[in-house]
Amino acid sequence: MTTPTRVSSRPQRGEGQWALGYREPLNPNERMKKDSDGLDVRQRILDIYSKGGFDSIDPGDLRGRMRWMGLYTQRAQGIPGGKTAVLEPEELEDSYFMMRARIDGGQLTSDALRVIGGISTDFGRDVADVTDRQNVQYHWIRIEDVPEIWRRLESVGLSTMEACGDVPRVMLGCPLAGILEDEVLDATDVIAETVAKYVGSPEFSNLPRKWKTSMSGCVDHCTEPEIDDVSFVGVRNADGEAGYDLWVGGGLSTNPKFAQRIGVFVRPDQVTDVWAACTAVFRDYGYRRQRNRARIKFLMADWGPEKFRQVLQDEYLHVQLPDGPAPAPAKHDQRDHVGVSRQKDGANAVGFALRTGRISGSLLTTIADLADEYGQGRIRTTTQQKLVILDVPDEKVEALVAALAEHDLQVRPSAFRRGTMACTGLEFCKLAIVETKQHAQDLYAELEKRLPDFDTPIGINVNGCPNSCARFQTADIGFKGSMVRDAAGEMVEGFQVHLGGHLGVEATFGRKFRGHKVTKAETADYCERVLRGFLERRTPGESFAHYVSRADEDWLL
Description:
- Keywords: 4Fe-4S, Heme, Iron, Iron-sulfur, Metal-binding, Oxidoreductase, Thioether bond.
- GO terms for molecular function: 4 iron, 4 sulfur cluster binding; heme binding; metal ion binding; sulfite reductase (ferredoxin) activity.
- This is assimilatory sulfite reductase (ferredoxin).
- The chain folds into 3 domains: 19-161 and 342-411, Sulfite Reductase Hemoprotein, domain 2 (Alpha-Beta Complex); 183-330, 2-Layer Sandwich (Sulfite Reductase Hemoprotein, domain 1); 418-555, Sulfite Reductase Hemoprotein, domain 1, CATH 3.30.413.
- The strands form 4 sheets. The protein has a 5-stranded antiparallel β-sheet with strand order 1-2-5-4-13. A 5-stranded antiparallel β-sheet has the order 3-14-15-12-11.
- It is globular and about 60 Å long.
- The chain has helices at residues 28-35, 41-52, 59-62, 89-92, 110-123, 146-155, 188-198, 271-285, 296-317, 361-374, 397-405, 415-419, 437-450, 523-537, 544-550, and strands at 71-75, 93-101, 107-109, 128-130, 136-141, 168-172, 211-216, 230-236, 242-248, 260-266, 339-342, 348-353, 358-359, 378-381, 386-392, 420-422, 460-463, 477-485, 491-499, 517-519.
- With 557 residues, the chain is of the alpha+beta class.
């Protein structure tokens, strides 16, 4: 006797893809967005919360929709990293906010930078972070001050609109777009058009997760298109026409994947429509049932570029895009535009390293003044936590270099200062397990002392948790924050080590070695040991990433 097959009357959940009719059941984040669009929280902040104070904020807005306006509650002071996964959100959070101002394309005027600096000084305890996505973040922001902060930002064409949340985040662009002679093309206008048309639009205010975009014609691929959700990469077709190669599905965090080429050639006048179509594919076909699978990289892993192209063209664009060539490899391994670069108009762009992105509002204001004094008031942020002052004439370059150095802003930094990045870390982030900003600064300073003649570009990325806000998987040496046991058996702050991450030709994520971990106190010793081994064993011209790929495991532990 065979058992009859049971047929359930319950609807199949699938992956929660809207286009296939799966809108129920909803996880808490999807329910929150269905109950009220994230964009609607702006008016409640203005009318209710800024007047009633922190305790007046609805929990669904506080831990959900306020992100659509660039606001996260920051970590309460004094909570150790070992408590991060133990405490509830309301136990971890302070009554202050991290606020993110989006700077699309990294483009700023001196007036805008003064406003950014003044907000930090007046409302954020004079603390600011230049991020690795060209934004500026504040801390210690009170909800009562948000309307005035918005007023100031909007007076210079900036906002916090959709700086966080399940929306199109800041759109990355080359900081030297339109400046350098050798760029494939200038993406400034296509970024501006796309931002103007779609940022803040209800059409894309409810995506499955965050949506990270880059558009650039930079020959160095400085926006790191390999790890963005959707990227438009400058390329010339067989006829010599400049346009874009479309890449989709990059992302890091706990399941890193590189973007895949879709294989089409996109003309500049098509970019905004193609971007909107890609975003709509993600909105409608993205996986919404499980939050940890709601990024486009998971859909791309299942579909592949051929199916994505078919759906994009047939269901959304209703036009066939021509096949296109792959772009040339990145011209330089270092993508930060640090140093002095010749502009096509004969002036110079002067890029300089901060202290792992951490800066004061007062110093941002000083930089705005220097941009006026030595240039024409144009400043750019980079995807490596750096800044660039444009339009500096030859005769003023060295004077500007010296003026910046007076504030420990280095145009010609050591390899360690130049290559070290860090996320927000335990100081302010509710997800972090270890402190990062100060530790990363101490680390590069110590390595400068121990290896003063180190002559090879080296990326050292320090992350406070597995979410990879500072991209530990793509660094030469990536540190992922965790709690580890020290020699005495005590649980202390430390890091899992990833080695040999690399973008560009033969891109690869960093290697892990049997879960190799170091305590926070051991990081300088570990870096010194591994880097001395590299100096002893490298072949002429060999990069650290290539060395790691062939190294014996014992050399790297």
